[in-house]
Amino acid sequence: MGEHRGTHVPVLLERCLELLAPALQLPGAVHVDFTLGLGGHAEAVLERFPEVVLIGLDRDTEALTHARHRLARFAGRTHLVHAVYDELPRVLEELDRPAIHSGLFDLGVSSLQLDEADRGFAYAQDAPLDMRMDQTSGFTAEQVVNEYEPGELVRILRVYGEEKFATRVVSSIVRERQKGRITSTSRLADLVKESIPAAARRTGGNPAKRTFQALRIEVNGELAALEAALPAALDALAPKGRLVVMSYQSLEDRIVKRALAARARSTGPVDLPVELPGTGPTLRLLTRGSEPAGEQEVADNPRAASVKLRAVERLDQDGTTGAARERPRMSTTHGGQGRLRPGEREEGEGKA
Ligand SMILES: C[S@@+](CC[C@H](N)C(=O)[O-])C[C@H]1O[C@@H](n2cnc3c(N)ncnc32)[C@H](O)[C@@H]1O
């Protein structure tokens, strides 16, 4: 993403709480904050729902230290775990919690990561090219920039950064690295700026934004982790459990939309009047497409500008009970019950 997120205000906090509230009031509710960060959303959940047990995950040890301090007064009902969010099944097993009732993903980088110059996420501050959310393992952006084959770099910038001038940017990178390693965020940001045609530089914000987003996604394996984490989260969700996901760029949101829509429609034959066991929808969509933040929130909190929120509820009957049940007479996915027929578009498909 790379956009300014200097504020510490949790995005769409009231909307998240409103959507999750019915699940947070279930007896013995367990809430998983998959992206604990500075603990803003988690703190509000713990404050307003005094019975809820929180499992907070983050791959960033600094974020965990910060959140542990902030949530210290709730220590009796919190488990804060250093983990990538697709490790949920292992974490639940270790905590002996077979199911969860509520979950929140607030994707991307935290203001802590952006504000701490030495993490290398921000193109506006000079720092070593690191960009690892988990600084205890993995490879850095410096390694990607200096060691990847040019063709691979072009692919990453195009796919993860949606950078139209990927070939030009990579040509500059390759020329520069022949002279010596590129080690700093400002050198990279300057190189990107110099490679983009002047006319294109005048629109669309800082030209380095797309390259930095692409490198961050590559370094942290962000899309693969999300692809694996969503099914794991949905599998763990108890009946009437709810999940909210907030993404900040279209690649993430596309993954979220597909993962949720796939379980919100029938997988049975289109022309049968009844649902066969095991083929019914297991989720109900709680949002119409994706929800943005309101104007006032965006004015108060720049990070909210690109947010897309989606939410679902796990259905009581998941089609595995063995009983054939009547299929709702709907042909679209709205409300999450219908099944797409050939030629129909997935709800929200075609929107950014
Ligand atoms: C936008 S922040 C969350 C902010 C949080 N909701 C708050 O109120 O403070 C995202 C956090 O998710 C973490 N994160 C990103 N990808 C992750 C992953 N795959 N597994 C675990 N944590 C991840 C980041 O390290 C960062 O701390």
Q: Describe it for me?
A:
It is a single chain. This protein is of the alpha/beta class. The protein folds into 2 domains: 13-111 and 223-336, Rossmann fold (3-Layer(aba) Sandwich), CATH 3.40.50; 122-220, Putative methyltransferase TM0872, insert domain (DNA polymerase, domain 1, Orthogonal Bundle), CATH 1.10.150. The protein has helices at residues 13-24, 40-48, 61-70, 88-95, 111-115, 141-147, 150-161, 166-179, 185-195, 198-201, 208-220, 222-236, 250-263, 295-300; strands at residues 30-33, 53-58, 78-82, 100-106, 237-247, 274-275, 283-285, 308-314, 325-326. The strands form 2 sheets. It has a 7-stranded mixed sheet, with helices on both faces. A two-stranded antiparallel ribbon has the order 6-9. Helix 3 links the parallel strand 2 (53-58) and strand 3 (78-82). Helix 7 (150-161) packs across helix 11 (208-220). It starts with 12 loop residues before the first helix and ends in a 26-residue tail after the last strand. Residues 1-7 and 318-352 have low confidence and may be disordered. The chain binds S-adenosylmethionine. S-adenosylmethionine (SAM) binds at residues 10, 35, 37-41, 57-60, 63, 84-85, 106, 108, 110, 133, 225.
